[in-house]
Request: fold
Amino acid sequence: MNSDELYEAGIKVRREVLGDEHVDRAIAKTTDFSQPFQDYINRAAWGSAWTRDVLDRRTRSIVTLTALTALHCHDEIAMHVRAAIHHGLTAAEIAEILVHTGVYAGVPAANAATAIAQRVLAELGEPSAQPRSPDSV
Reply:
């Protein structure tokens, strides 16, 4: 693919993974300063990496959550928890990914990611992420 094709493929996949609302917000906030970075991530991350056919999107979500947790990328975790749910992961699988990542990336990193994931899953109505009643503690 040429550069323009990578960009268009990237925008398409980015919308499919993160949703139109997120991508529209990112585009609306783009400035002359941030335009080169937006172009780069649309081509490299979304147009080149996420369009490859060796790994399915569910597996890519697992890898992404693991990497974001290990690197303490807290601002990115929430949107990728939503994407993981969209790609068929369950709340239990996401929790297990974070526990397993904690062993290799460190408990503080996994603890922060778990808190973010719990908040997002609760917002999505996931029963296991809702606060427990005092009677069940």
Q: What stands out?
A: The mean pLDDT is 94. The helical segments are 3-18, 20-28, 35-49, 57-70, 74-86, 91-105, 107-123. The first helix runs from residue 3 to 18.
